[in-house]
Each structure stands twice: as C-alpha cells, then as structure tokens.
Design brief:
Alkaline Phosphatase, subunit A; elongated; single chain; 7-stranded mixed β-sheet; alpha/beta
Length: 574
C-alpha cells in the first residue's frame, strides 16, 4: 500500500503532469510520422517544431493545472485525430470531417461511435486522468518551480529552433511540401478555417444563388407525357450489384425482370467519397474543376426542369442537415423529407416507405411533364438499420461490433441493403410503367464503402484519402418502351456507351438533361451517356480542399490502382 501511495504521489506532482501532458499532446504527431508518406526531414519537422512550441508555451505560467486546461482545444483535436487514424488508417483531420460533424445525423453518428469503443476508451484513458489531476492542482494552487520552468523553456527553444532548421530543409527540398498542409496541428487549424469559411458561405447561399438561371427550354413536343425519375443512392458499391457480375442475387429484379430495359455502367466512378459534395455535383452542372466557390452561386437540375415547364418533386428518406441537398430539394414544387415532422414524421422510414410515398404521389399526380428526385435511405452503416428484419435475405446478419473478424456477417447485412435498393427500383419502375407515355429513370450512388476488403482493414467512407471501393459506384439507366420508340438514338447510345469509363457526378446531370430534351447552355452533351458524342473523361477526384486532382494525387495506393486496372481490363475483355 505504501509503494502504491508513493507511485501515486509521484504522478501527482506538477513536474510529472507537465512532462506527461507534453508527451500526450505529441501522440498524434508520432502516429502521423508512421502513417503518412513523409520524408525523414518532414518527419523531423513534424515532431520537433510542434514539440518545441508546446514546450515553450507550457512554461509561460507556473500554474500547470491551468495551463493544461488552456490547451484543451489541442486535447480535443488530438483525441479527434487519434480516432480518425484508428478509423481510416491515415491522414490528418480533413475539412470534410469537420463538415460531417454538422451534416451527419445524430443517429448515424451514434451507430458509428458505438462500434469504436476501444479507440474511444484509449483516448479517454490517455487524456481524462491528466485533465482531472490538473483541475485538482489548479484549485490547490500547485505550481512549477522557477528553475524547472527556466530549464524547460531553454530546452523547448532549442527543440523549436531545430524544428525551424528542418522546416527550411523541407521547403527548399520539396516544392510540394508546405507547413500549412503537412505540419500537425497547423494543417488541422487550416482545415478548420476552410470548414468555417464553407459554413459562412452556406448561410448566405440563398443570397449568392438568387439570380442564377439555366435559361432552359424544352425541345420535346408539348403533346408528350413525360416522367423522369432521378434516384440518389447512399453508400452503394458497384461490385455488390448482381447486374454488375456479383455472385450473389442482390439485384434479382433488375437482373431478371428488367434485363432488356436496364443499361448498367460497370466502370462508373464517383468523384467524391462524401455525400455533402457528391450529391450537389450530381444534381448541378458543376464538375470537380469548377466546383470550388461556384457551388455557392448555382441551383440544381430541379430548377432547370422547372424552367423547361416541368412540375417537380423532391422526396427524401434522409433527414435535413442544412447542406446543399436541402437547398436543392427545396427548389422543387413539392419537397418532402419523410422522416421530418414537416414531412410524414416517419422516424423509422426505410426505402420501402420511400417507395410507397412515391407510388401515392404519382397516383395523385396530374402533371403532363414531371421530374421526381428520390433520395434513398440506402446502405449507410449501421447496415441492419437500413432494412426491416423480414427483408433479411442473407443471414446471419447480426454483429456486436464492426471488425475484420466480423466481415462475413457485415457483408450479409450490407448485401441486404443492396437488395432493398433493388426492391425500391422495382417499385419505381412498376409505377412508371403504369403511367405509360415517355419515362426514364436514372440511379447512381453518392459513393461506395470500405468493408475490411484487404490487408488495409479499411472501413466506411469519407476518409481523407479515398479508396477504390469508396469511389466505384453503380450507375443504371432505364428507358420506357415509349421513350425507346420515340428516341431510338438515345437508347442506342446508352447501349454503345455502357462499357466506357463514366464519372457519375458529371454524367448524371448531363444525361438527365439530354434524355429530357432540355436545352441549356450550362449542359454538355458530350458528358451524357445517352449521346452518340459521349466521351470518357480522365478519372479525377474532388479533394478535401475542393481541388480537382487525379486519382493518384487523391491518395490512391498501389492496391487501389491494381483494382482499377483489373476493372478496366475485365470490362474491355467482355
């Protein structure tokens, strides 16, 4: 007992807390030195400069307890950074991660965090005792001795100067390297400023986009009855779709009932692995090249159809989150978020609920020309929450936590969500066939998902560096018999283009505009897969700082490149 008390008293001294807290603050820097592709000089500056600065700053006051709490923002960022690395295996806290804090529904966040209890426990044990002891020291007025402060300040300055020397080496040796992007926590601070800038601009979106117009008009005869349905998927992977060659019957209705009517594009890739950027790209005329500040000044495809004389509707199985998806949806004549109190207030709604709402809406609809955008519940984790128990086709599908050892069960649950999407699309197509006339449906997903697919043990999506599985998404187009009869050239072009590389975020808007015969100077027919002039574009990615980069620049690894090469080779051979 005496030895225990001696050890406890040793760890309760201001000097010990000073040293332990300094080491705890450096944990993210040490981890990033292993996870990031850094040169030896970059590793040195990433360790020495922050360590020296922290060291000096902590000597500015003898009250170590108060100093620790003044550093609390850095503690929060350090904890966030450790959790992020545990989840994605690499990279600093991205802009998109901060934005996800405000756009992710609390329920989805809870589902995720409940499966990360081990990492959360590590973070709590690392920082909470230090914070707790610091409170006691602060209240008791326990301080550091002047000699210790002077020596520590001198040592900190020496380390900081060494860091500055290595900083000069990095700047001169590597033109791509920059302190703003490559030194933690400076890079995180920069990302926070970008996230704040986005949030401010988002608040003024109504003002900045007010005067936007597509100048759109319809080139199709007024006598035609036309219906176009755009279905936005959530977290769906192309390689888990039966119609794309997956071994399991995940899309039996599309594969059997609509085999001659559906055109699938198995080489389709998303240009973002985050919902809050991918969906606005899909629904607007923008591309990763001009997304940047332009997204705050434009409106969506819904406005283009309205200008061309179409009645419009937006029906979502998601909750509002204050993003562009909400703003674009509210452009429609009818805007319905069925999980919200001002919608149908169905808190447990799933994609079968969405299908029933769509059917009722179409049964009452008298518009001659109609656009409907459906935002699905889809395949987001927790997968079991995305489908009713009676729809569980692949079992067992119950898991206690998400881990590589549970992969087979996770895959069963995930595949059940794909089967739900198949049922939804079947119901949509049945409804469109009953309506007769000219009709078309487009479906694609915002992004894909990692599910412990290889030795990297990656899971989920929205990682700062995307993987192949996060970007390879399904993209299908259905045309009614009436549409194919009136516009056989478009139907033929879809068939001819089906094996080409497709960027869904760019093609989705342009294909829908092209199929509907809408004329606007903001559309590009060369990016419509229903056009004989369609041309595949070099694959690209909208990165965390909203810059258009190649897949190699996005952080694609050798594994991702091999997977993409295998996909292209497999399709070309077929």
């Amino acid at each position: 007992m005496k030895r225990f008390k001696d050890i406890l008293s040793l760890f309760s001294t201001p000097r010990t807390i000073f040293i332990m807290f300094l080491c705890a603050l450096m944990v993210p820097n040490v981890i990033l030195s292993f996870t990031e592709q850094l040169s030896p000089a970059a590793i040195a500056v990433n360790i020495l400069l922050p360590l020296g600065v922290y060291w000096v700053l902590m000597t500015l006051s003898p009250n170590v307890g108060r100093t620790v709490w003044l550093f609390f923002p850095l503690v929060f960022l350090a904890a966030f950074q450790i959790v992020l690395i545990s989840l994605y295996g690499r990279s600093v806290i991205a802009v998109d991660m901060f934005l996800n804090l405000t756009t992710t529904n609390p329920g989805e966040a809870g589902e995720l965090l409940s499966n990360m209890w081990q990492t959360l426990l590590f973070v709590i044990l690392l920082y909470m005792p230090l914070l707790g002891v610091s409170v006691v020291m602060w209240r008791k007025g326990m301080t550091l001795k002047p000699d210790f402060l002077r020596n520590s300040r001198r040592h900190g300055m020496i380390v900081a100067v060494a860091g500055l020397v290595m900083l000069a080496v990095c700047v001169s040796a590597d033109k791509v390297w920059s302190a703003r992007n490559d030194i933690y926590p400076l890079n995180v601070g920069y990302n926070i400023s970008l996230a704040v800038d986005h949030s401010i601009k988002l608040e003024h979106y109504a003002e900045t986009s007010r005067g936007f117009t597509f100048g759109a008009s319809s080139t199709h005869p007024d006598s035609l009855h036309e219906t176009y349905v755009l279905v936005i998927g959530e977290t769906s992977r192309a390689d888990h779709w039966q119609i794309n060659g997956y071994s399991r019957p995940t899309t039996p209705m599309l594969a059997d009932e609509y085999a001659d009517e559906i055109v699938s594009f198995p080489r389709a890739m998303s240009e973002s692995n985050t919902t809050h950027k991918s969906v606005p790209l899909m629904l607007s005329h923008l591309t990763p090249v001009n997304y940047g500040d332009s997204i705050y000044r434009v409106k969506s495809i819904i406005t283009a159809f309205k200008e061309a004389g179409y009645a419009t509707a937006f029906i979502s199985c998601q909750r509002r989150n204050g993003s562009f998806i909400d703003f674009f949806g509210e452009e429609a004549d009818t805007c319905l978020f069925i999980r919200e109190p001002d919608g149908l207030a169905v808190s447990d709604a799933n994609d079968m609920t969405l299908a029933r709402v769509f059917e009722r809406f179409m049964a009452c609809d008298k518009a001659k020309k109609r656009l409907v955008v459906l935002h699905t519940y889809g395949s987001h984790f927790d997968y079991r929450e995305r489908y009713p128990r009676e729809y569980a086709r692949f079992i067992p599908d119950s898991y206690d936590e998400a881990g590589s050892k549970q992969r087979s069960v996770l895959i069963n649950a995930y595949d059940n969500t794909i089967a739900m999407t198949d049922r939804l699309l079947d119901r949509v197509l049945i409804t469109l066939k009953r309506r007769h006339g000219i009709a078309a449906m487009l479906y694609t997903s915002d992004h894909g998902e990692d599910i412990f697919d290889d030795d990297r043990s990656l899971f989920l999506h929205a990682s700062p560096c995307p993987s192949f599985y996060q970007l390879h998404v399904p993209f299908v187009v259905w045309l009614s018999r009436g549409y194919r009869a009136h516009y056989p050239m478009a139907a033929g072009a879809l068939h001819d283009n089906r094996s080409k590389a497709v960027s869904t975020n760019t093609c989705f808007f342009n294909t829908a505009i092209d199929l509907a015969g809408i004329s606007t100077h903001r559309a590009d027919c060369n990016r419509s897969v229903a056009s004989v002039n369609f041309k595949s574009q070099p694959r690209r990615y909208l990165n965390d700082h909203n810059r258009c980069v190649t897949l190699d620049q996005s952080g694609f690894t050798d594994i991702d490149r091999r997977l993409l090469e295998a996909l292209d080779k497999d399709i070309s051979e077929k």
